[in-house]
Write a structure and sequence with these properties.
Layout: H1 12-26, E1 36-38, H2 41-52, E2 58-65, E3 82-92, E4 95-101, E5 111-113
Antiparallel strand pairs: 1-5, 2-3, 3-4
């Protein structure tokens, strides 16, 4: 990748303002409102392992919403709720700045908040 990314953390006050701004808009649609999605370390580490082995070059997060047809393992009651999809990417051979989604390994099944909100700080 030719562009250097800024991987420095953002200030917690800025993060809180961003979460608050999202909540103001998202709460206009209370049926789908999801404050956060939690994923277990094992799932993240498995993706990171595949990246370190060179299978993937990054991770794209898609904002999504559950439909009436829930993925296996997602509990009932999540239809209509917002979620995140974890989609690993591979570098495009023709352009270092482009990344191709690998649609064979889409991750999901995080725990949404509301419902599972213990420990949230933002």
């Amino acid at each position: 990748m030719s562009q250097k990314l800024n991987s420095e953390p953002i200030d917690k006050k800025v993060a809180q303002a961003m979460v608050n701004a999202y909540a103001v808009e998202a709460r206009k649609f209370p049926q789908s409102f999801t404050k956060a999605v939690w994923f277990p370390a094992e799932q993240i580490l498995e993706i990171a392992k595949l990246m370190s082995e060179g299978k993937y070059d990054g991770l794209r997060l898609y904002f999504a919403q559950y439909t009436d047809v829930l993925p296996e393992g997602v509990k009932n009651g999540y239809a209509g709720k917002n979620t995140l999809l974890l989609v690993p990417t591979t570098a495009c051979e023709s352009n270092d700045d482009e990344h191709q989604d690998n649609l064979d390994d889409i991750g999901n099944r995080g725990q949404g908040c509301p419902d599972f909100c213990n420990g949230t700080s933002l």
